[in-house]
Design brief:
Length: about 140
């Protein structure tokens, strides 16, 4: 199963290298809707292999701005978050870099697209009836 997943991911990456996204984002979105490829990418997140290449390619797809590509990439966010938390829990830090880059880049791109202004002051959560956490730290 692992070999098949790696093969599918490798073929996907080669296909996107041969046909850059800027030339044909439809091809990329068609590739990302293939069930076997989707399963392989989820498997890569779950088992921690080929993460750097997968994360880089997913980020390129997201940056393209095509609605279908963006939706396809967003479907991998829960798996990416789970892989990141799992790697941190196992103290397997070699796999966290590509995941951090993917998640933070998507967040930053989303914030930039939505033109959401950043708050100049930090808002810390508080529980009803308790002081805000920031006040307790002082």
């Amino acid at each position: 199963m692992e070999i098949e997943c790696k093969r599918l991911i490798s073929e996907w990456m080669k296909e996107l290298h041969l046909h850059p996204l800027r030339n044909d984002s439809r091809l990329a979105s068609q590739l990302l809707t293939k069930e076997d490829l989707m399963t392989a990418i989820h498997s890569a997140f779950n088992h921690g292999y080929s993460l750097e290449g997968v994360c880089n390619q997913l980020l390129e797809c997201y940056r393209e701005g095509d609605h279908d590509l963006t939706a396809a990439v967003m479907s991998f966010i829960p798996s990416a978050i789970w892989a990141y938390i799992s790697a941190l829990a196992k103290q397997s830090l070699e796999n966290t870099g590509p995941l951090e880059a993917l998640l933070l880049s998507i967040y930053n791109i989303s914030i930039d697209i939505e033109k959401v202004p950043f708050s100049k002051e930090e808002n810390f959560p508080s529980l009803p009836g308790h002081k805000a956490l920031s006040n307790q730290m002082l």
